[in-house]
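Risk register update: the risk of archive-format incompatibility is retired. Evidence:
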Amino acid sequence: MKLENQCVVPADWDATWDLLMEIPTAAVLVPGVDEVTIREDGYFDARMQVRVGPMRLRFSGTVQLLEKDRERGEARFQVEAADRQVGGSVKADLTMQLDRQSESETGVSISTDVAFMGKLGELGQPLVRRKAAATLQDFARNLSNRIKETCAE
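Archived output:
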């Protein structure tokens, strides 16, 4: 399933890039993410709780920064997580692209190619698509709020 989301954050390009490349800080802006720890091998361990329809899911998994190019304002990530209790898993390839809108605004585009396996795949694509889109929209709002707070300090 492909998902495309965009937002404009009220901060210059450099501040936005720097915050997003602080993976543990940026990851907790995703609703439901409650813990992110850095491993020595370049991976990040993460935990997330989310409700999709009638199911409450508790994912544990990894985030890997595959590449980042500050000049182009692009970063690619791979996320793999599973909920052992429900018996479902998710694998996502995520590309983030920054775009200078003005001196004080930066566009953030997030393109995600995600696959759901097991019980998650059985929930139905429309339900999962709505939840994923809402989560990315909430992340964009949380990112904007965090940047506003950081700039005010």
